């Protein structure tokens, strides 16, 4: 039985235009979710220590579901960002319904829910958080781009979210993919959820 997970040992499984095409396996499932341009691709690359996801400055660039095998310990699924304004309403509605069906059918063991630390949660952010809560899905809120905010502003944002969702300190993390701050804590938090330890690789 494995006791450690090496996030650097992550293999790309495939990309899928339709969430219903994502294959199943017997490993625990982790889902990454967040609005367009929140920094999901950057975080994924730093978390795994590899350039698995293409980073773009254009919101909504990534429209595929990306699937990864993390050290044979769990499966990681990266969903396209929501709320991209230039996507047509029909496309948004179709993908939203497909995503919701995917989440409810697969019921991920853990959702990494990304929020932009520079801004207040949007209506879509709040909707997603309420959805995860009402569905009884365990999620870990993560504030991204922590290097772009002052320490005082970051602390105020953390306090607001903790009060809003009655979160314990250990349930809310702030990370910066650019500065690599908070990445080790994030790996530790994910590993601990599955009774593992994160291998120290950098």
Structure write-up:
- The protein has a single domain, classed as 3-Layer(aba) Sandwich (Rossmann fold).
- 32% of the residues lie in helices and 21% in strands.
- It is built from five helices and nine strands, in the order E-E-E-H-E-E-H-E-H-E-H-E-H-E.
- It has helices at residues 40-48, 89-106, 123-134, 151-165, 183-193; strands spanning 4-5, 10-16, 29-34, 65-70, 74-78, 110-116, 139-144, 173-174, 197-198.
- The strands form two sheets. It has a seven-stranded mixed β-sheet with strand order 2-4-5-3-6-7-8, with helices on both faces. A two-stranded parallel ribbon has the order 1-9.
- A hairpin with a 3-residue loop joins strand 4 and strand 5 (74-78).
- It starts with a strand and ends with a strand.
- Residues 56-61 have low confidence and may be disordered.
Summarize the model shown.
The protein is an alpha/beta fold and 202 residues long.
* Rg calc: 16 Å
Low-confidence stretches: 56-61
Biggest β-sheet strands, sense, barrel: 7 strands, mixed
Structural class: alpha/beta
What's the total count of β strands? 9
Keywords:
single chain; 202 residues; 7-stranded mixed β-sheet; 5 helices; 32% helix
List the helices and strands and how they pair.
Layout: E1 4-5, E2 10-16, E3 29-34, H1 40-48, E4 65-70, E5 74-78, H2 89-106, E6 110-116, H3 123-134, E7 139-144, H4 151-165, E8 173-174, H5 183-193, E9 197-198
Parallel strand pairs: 1-9, 3-5, 3-6, 6-7, 7-8
Antiparallel strand pairs: 2-4, 4-5
